Amino acid sequence: MFRIQEKAFVDSMRELGWVEGRNIIFDRVYADNDAARLPVLAAELVSRGPHVIYAQANLPARAAFSETSKVPIVFAGVDDPVQLGVIKSLSRPGGNITGIVNMGWELSGKRMQLLKEAMPKLGRVGVLMTPYRGASEGLKLIEQAAGSNVQVIPAMVKGAKELDAAFALLAQNKVDAVLTSHVTLFLRERKRIVELAAKQRLPVMGHRSELADSGALMSYSSLLTDDIRRGAQLVDKVLKGTKPTDIPVEQPTKFALVVNMKTAKALGIAIPQSILLQAERVIE
């Protein structure tokens, strides 16, 4: 987990009565963005006999699930856990795992629609994407929402070192804006993305509110902190005796459009009232 996500989880557990050092111990392991370390870390956790494992995002959840069929697992921020192979269905997860499913790629088209509404003269949009799970599906939704009047320019990024090349490609294609696809890499590298976009005076539509907080023009997403809070509630249920197989996997219920007016003014973009009325939060 990112440290900010870890804090949200620990705070949520405290609100539920689980206070670290008093009635609960959090045995933390970090892969430091190296997915190859996850199986070893999962094995280490299982060997220490935890009462429940909490995993944030696809790869950590998959690593934990692959390591144990006995220790209860609660996940949050997982894209399509059925396709990932960790549950049988949302209503009946089966086995030792349950959690909060992520809605990310499914919102790609909505982000494109909002960007078009905010920038009526939009002609070309660059899309930062990776060759991993969900990329092609998300791109299709973006292209459908873009319609015939907006050209979509994909920029493939496998790692942080490729961001400069991606923005160079987008500059060559003279895009009018950049849209980040729903990938953890782009959340982690949000400040770098905003910096690179600012050099080209490109507005960014982000896939998480943290991007708007970092200077993107807008963001539209489920509320990550709410997903983590609900994940903590499921951990609480498991610690109190409920089996994961008896807890249906939940979907996000809260979504937020965030508009950064500082960025809009700096780029000379007049955000229409129709967008501001939809905004959950406006950064002045």
Brief descriptors of the model:
single chain, 284 residues, alpha/beta, Rossmann fold, 10 strands
| Rg computed from alpha carbons, rounded to a whole number of angstroms | 20 Å
Q: Give the biggest beta sheet.
A: 7 strands, mixed
Physical arrangement of strands within the biggest beta sheet: 5-4-6-7-8-9-10
**What is the CATH class of the largest domain?**
Alpha Beta
CATH superfamily of the largest domain: Response regulator
What is the name of the CATH architecture of the largest domain? 3-Layer(aba) Sandwich
Shape: elongated
Number of helices: 13
- In angstroms, what separates the terminal alpha carbons? 29 Å
Mean pLDDT: 94
> What letter string, H or E per element, gives the SSE order?
HHEHEHEHEHEHEHHEHEHEHHE
Briefly note the structural class of the backbone.
alpha/beta
Task: List the domain count as a whole number.
Answer: 2
Q: Roughly what percent helix?
A: 40-55%
Break the fold down into its secondary structure elements and pairings.
Elements lengths: L2 H13 L22 H10 L5 E4 L1 H10 L5 E7 L1 H4 L12 E6 L5 H11 L5 E6 L5 H12 L4 E6 L6 H10 L4 E4 L3 H5 L1 H10 L4 E3 L2 H5 L4 E5 L1 H16 L15 E6 H7 L5 H6 L2 E3 L1
Parallel strand pairs: 1-2, 2-3, 4-5, 4-6, 6-7, 7-8, 9-10
Antiparallel strand pairs: 8-9
Helix pairs in contact: 1-11, 2-3, 5-6
Characterization of the model:
The chain is elongated, with a radius of gyration of 20 Å. It starts with a helix and ends with a strand. The longest helix has 16 residues, at 224-239. The protein has 2 domains: 3-102 and 223-253, Response regulator (Rossmann fold); 105-222 and 256-283, Rossmann fold (3-Layer(aba) Sandwich). The protein has helices spanning 3-15, 38-47, 58-67, 81-84, 108-118, 135-146, 163-172, 184-188, 190-199, 209-213, 224-239, 261-267, 273-278; strands at 53-56, 73-79, 97-102, 124-129, 151-156, 177-180, 204-206, 218-222, 255-260, 281-283. It contains 13 helices and 10 strands.
